[in-house]
Amino acid sequence: MHRLWLIFAQTVTVALAVVFTVSTLKPEWLPRGQRIIALQEAAPSVDGEPRAAASYRDAARSSLPAVVHIYTTQQVRQQRHPLFDDPIFRHFFGERPEGQNRRNSGLGSGVIVSQNGYILTNFHVIEGADDIQVALNDGKTYKARIVGTDPESDLAVLRIDASGLPAITFGQMDNLRVGDVVLAIGNPFGVGQTVTMGIVSALGRSHLGINTFENFIQTDAAINPGNSGGALVDAQGNLVGINTAIYSRTGGNHGIGFAIPVSSARSIMEQIIESGSVTRGWIGVEAQEITEELAESFGLPDTDGALIAGVVRASPADRAGVRPGDVLLSVNGKAVTDPQVMLDLIAELKPDEKAAFRLRRDRSILELQVRIGKRPPLRAEE
Description:
Layout: H1 2-25, E1 43-46, E2 49-51, H2 57-63, E3 67-77, H3 87-93, E4 101-112, E5 118-121, H4 123-126, E6 131-135, E7 141-150, E8 155-160, E9 181-186, E10 194-205, E11 216-219, E12 231-234, E13 239-246, E14 257-261, H5 262-275, E15 281-282, E16 285-289, H6 292-298, E17 306-311, H7 316-320, E18 327-331, E19 334-335, H8 339-347, E20 354-361, E21 364-371, E22 373-374
Domain PDZ: 272-338
Enzyme class: hydrolase
Keywords: Hydrolase, Periplasm, Protease, Repeat, Serine protease, Signal
């Protein structure tokens, strides 16, 4: 019986090998209906050109013209060496000139968001720049001016004097899921416009210490220096994020890149275009995460919420009666799980409106109404 089974198994193996070989090399020898389907079927052509299966050329073709290169220069005054101020040195070597000026240059990318010249990019791309030049996909170069910036989200809006520009199409964050294919477009290392492909590795990444407000798309699409401010687009070529940072110990790509979601970027962009700045809510507290050790020290039942470590005098929180040692549990019914969530919830509120704060003080639960203030610029702590 064992011998019969071996003969049968060998016969089946040889038969399958023959069928596979014939179907691959001479499929016409097989009768219709018995041919093995090829792994890659012919796809319809576009503009007379054959399109390979799983190609993203259409997405790249539609979005590439909307991504620009940004070149910046900054004049920096070199410090005079302390040795030149030494009297003995000056006696033997004479006077030396003051520190000379030198010019630093930088490069990055940007995305055309309107046909009349508005461009979205990262704040760190143009920070401190004296001169900003924008090069379009067709080679034309324009001098750009800064419309407004938001350092806390690392976004900036530029404008060039041009019209009829190829603006990007905005995508929908609600449709983006982990595993979706995305393309990163930019100017890495200044080599020229480049497209890399990957997937969405994670959504809602925060606590990275990159920006004050963080809600990143994580992707393994190759992002390198020079890609900052460029477009992260979906498989249809719609903008889903602004490439911002990479996780790297060497400065090169390790397959972990971060992009600001288009929903956040668009909201901030619209505020900057309308008023030149971004308005966020603020109450004037400093908060810290509740660890198990802190919970035990304060006699808290769990680690939920954000511990109020300090309150700014005469701030909205101070006037409402918030005290150091309180634990903020929710804002307008939305749970506060840690200080970052607290920061985001308060920032979303409009100045001068009232919000319901639920706090734990000692072993009691308090409900306070807090009139929201306007967040001061360049503040990293609440």
